[in-house]
Amino acid sequence: MKSVLTAGENRRIAKAMLDYSMLADGDKVLIAVSGGIDSLVLAWVLHNWRRKAPINYEVHPVYVDMRPPGPPRVPEAETGGRAGLICERLAALGLSCRVLPAELPALSGAEQTQAGTEATGICFQCARNRRRLLFDHAREQGFNTIALGHHRDDIVETFFINLTCSGNISTMRPKQVLFSSRLALIRPLAYLVKKEIRGIGKRLGLDPVASDCPVSEKTRRKDIRGLLEHMYNRIPGSREHVFAALGNVRQDYLLLQEFSTHQ
């Protein structure tokens, strides 16, 4: 662990877990893996963190294999393609992976044309289907925690996506409790930036599995990422200040309507 993580990376992962009380003794953690370097590094971190953690918890990687509509597939028989490569990466880390087969929602002709030029509704439907499958699997298999590989840059980008595209001030929380506390979503890499995660992956000898999504390069997130990089390059310290601002909200200076309780 120490030879892979720098002192700063180790400290920030520990701080995120402590700040948000992410793990507890006896937790059964589903690690949502996508094949990207973020989720692969997350799987390694949570797997190896158990060696020094003062608590006992289980980790089980799960991959949702989203494909176009077709004949039914049995996850246990999945030995090739992208799912097979992801399972190989995890096996090299000492982890077995469960594959959940899933189908992309069918698109009309107009929707297919739109998906060919930009990622809008199809991304929402795909993400919703993945989330539903993970939630259902967690409930059926007794998981009380789902770990996601989102990092600091993802959190900031989501804030700006919601701000510019949905008109609200919100983002992904490092820990979010759902379903009357029956399930928690945690993001242990929340205090690391993408560059650091890539560095960890390189030191581990991990190669991400390339995405096969046809619209992965046409998303609003990619647009926002470019705008943020421009701002970071133009304004010194802005990367750190923007992230800090998400935990330093001054509600008295927002356009919140006040409702009097007096008639």
From TrEMBL:
GO terms for biological process: tRNA processing. PANTHER family: AMINOTRAN_5 DOMAIN-CONTAINING PROTEIN, SULFURTRANSFERASE-RELATED. This is tRNA 2-thiocytidine biosynthesis protein TtcA. The keyword Ribosomal protein does not apply. The keyword Secreted does not apply. It holds the Pfam family ATP_bind_3. Residues 28-225 form the tRNA(Ile)-lysidine/2-thiocytidine synthase N-terminal domain. ATP binds at A32, V33, S34, D38, V64, G149, D154. InterPro entries: Rossmann-like_a/b/a_fold, TilS/TtcA_N, tRNA_thiolation_TtcA_Ctu1. Keywords: ATP-binding, Nucleotide-binding, Transferase. GO terms for molecular function: ATP binding; transferase activity. It comes from the Bacteria.
